[in-house]
Write a structure and sequence with these properties.
The structure is a single chain. By secondary structure, this protein is α/β, with parallel strands linked by helices. Helices cover 21% and strands 27% of the residues. Strands 1, 3, 4, 6, 7, 8, 9, 10, 11, 12 and 13 form an eleven-stranded mixed beta sheet that branches. Helix 4 crosses helix 10. The protein starts with a helix and ends with a strand.
């Protein structure tokens, strides 16, 4: 008899709700994106009322039958003040996220050169990164994982860029974020999700593949292979989007960084459309159709076997990606290493990406942030070939030596002849005068895997490789 009240009491206090849980992105030291709605999501008992409080705001929602809730905080102002974000459920559970700041958030992805950590770069750049604590620069590293099915979360935490922890950060993402933080004077959060050796395909969602008519055949083959579990679940085949990108949505962020292509060098012909699918797919996932997508053009390198002579085709494909709106490309043919596919100068790469971000997203329109890009090819009556460029700043310049290098003409019989070129007196054009130039059918620049040319604009940003039919 005495047991009855106890048993009855026990039955009434057994938890009938699911544990209140937030994704890993909502953890101590997080950076929230300023100036736009901030989604907050998680999991709790269906029917429970969820309340989120931060910076004087309180927003509420009811948990649907699925158990996954989402609401949005109204746009926040940038602030380095460390505050608490509180999430409370009507089931009496409360989660408190501490040391939260508001500023700019970017997602960096790709293969090994994006994954490459500070402790593997030049000693000079390591010293700079480790010289002091930078508490308003924060990094969230997504661990390596592949999956056939979209995942809901990752196992990671935010970290401040403190001297002791900094060596483990992505060097490019750190350099980008550090430059942005200094220029904007607001907190910056860098989410990095990359995997060495990965091709572009596994970073693209099934839906994005299927929605691109140019990739329809590939999409259908991928789907059949997936259903049969014959599609390789690794960094070359399938599953990185599902496990390393999907769980990050819809965390509010400004834009994307991308450093990848080495593993796709041998098949550059498909790269533009695959990159288009990736960019448009990610923008759609985050419901930000104009989100900037900034990427790195590959550095020169002594590729072997089936990749000999293929790098210029990849450079060309990467430049064509600039046709996609709100994109930018960092050219780095002056800071590569012909014997090391992982150049040690990552600080320059990050700074060039940051320059484009400052120009494109933060109103610094006077900043020369883009490399010279061939605009027009013409001939004069006296036999000169004239190359005109965009993004000159104050004009073109040589970065080293006393003569421009890596210009050549192609003739109808297929022969290729190196030619001298010079910068016009006003610095606006390249002039080529060569024997039988009137018979040439194409002009090329830096058209070699190992080309390290010396043409740049007034900001020192190098011109990228190109080939163009002559009029």
């Amino acid at each position: 008899m005495r047991l009855l009240p106890f048993l009855f009491l026990g039955a009434t206090v057994l938890p009938s709700f699911a544990e209140l849980k937030l994704p890993a992105l909502f953890s101590d030291k997080m950076v929230l994106q300023q100036g736009m709605d901030v989604p907050v999501w998680g999991w709790a008992d269906p029917g429970a009322e969820i309340s989120v409080t931060f910076a004087g705001q309180t927003e509420k929602t009811k948990v649907p039958a699925s158990g996954k809730f989402e609401l949005k905080l109204k746009p926040l102002e940038a602030s380095a003040q460390e505050r608490e974000l509180t999430v409370t459920s009507s089931s009496k559970e409360t989660l408190v996220i501490k040391e939260v700041v508001v500023g700019e958030v970017w997602l960096g992805s790709g293969q090994s050169n994006m994954q490459w950590t500070i402790n593997k770069v030049s000693q000079e750049q390591q010293k700079l990164a480790k010289e002091k604590d930078r508490p308003n620069l924060r990094i969230f590293f997504v661990p390596l994982k592949a999956s056939y099915e979209p995942q809901e979360d990752v196992q990671a935490t935010w970290k401040k860029s403190l001297a002791a922890d900094t060596p483990a950060f992505s060097a490019v993402a750190w350099a980008f974020g550090n430059q942005l933080q200094q220029e904007l004077n607001v907190p910056v959060g860098m989410i990095t999700s990359s995997w060495g050796g990965s091709r572009i395909e596994p970073w693209i969602s099934d839906q994005a593949f299927a929605e691109n008519p140019m990739l329809k055949a590939i999409a259908e083959t991928r789907q059949k292979q997936k259903e049969a579990k014959k599609l390789k679940l690794n960094n070359h085949g399938y599953g990185l989007y599902q496990a390393m990108i999907h769980p990050l949505q819809p965390y509010a962020l400004r834009g994307f960084l991308w450093y990848q292509g080495e593993s796709n060098v041998a098949d550059a012909s498909k790269y533009l459309e695959m990159k288009r699918s990736l960019i448009e797919g990610w923008r759609k996932d985050w419901q930000q159709p104009d989100a900037p997508f900034l990427y790195v053009q590959l550095a020169p390198f002594t590729y072997e076997k089936n990749r000999v002579g293929k790098l210029p085709l990849m450079w060309e494909a990467q430049e064509k990606c600039l046709e996609i709106p709100h994109t930018g490309m960092a050219v780095i043919n002056d800071v590569g290493n012909l014997k090391n596919i992982h150049p040690l100068d990552k600080l320059t790469v990050g700074k060039r990406l940051a320059g484009m971000a400052l120009n494109m997203s933060y109103g610094k329109k006077d900043l020369v942030a883009n490399s010279p890009r061939l605009k027009k090819v013409s001939r004069t009556e006296d036999g000169l070939i004239v190359l005109s460029f965009d993004h000159l700043g104050e004009g073109l310049m040589m970065t080293k030596g006393d003569q421009l290098t890596h210009f050549e003409l192609v003739f109808p019989n297929g022969s290729v002849v190196p030619v001298a070129a010079q910068i016009s007196e006003d610095g606006q054009n390249i002039l080529i005068k060569a024997e039988k130039a009137d018979e040439a059918v194409e002009v090329r620049f830096a058209w070699s895997n190992t080309a390290e040319p010396n043409l740049a604009n007034s900001a020192g940003l190098p011109a990228s490789a190109f080939r163009r039919k002559l009029p």
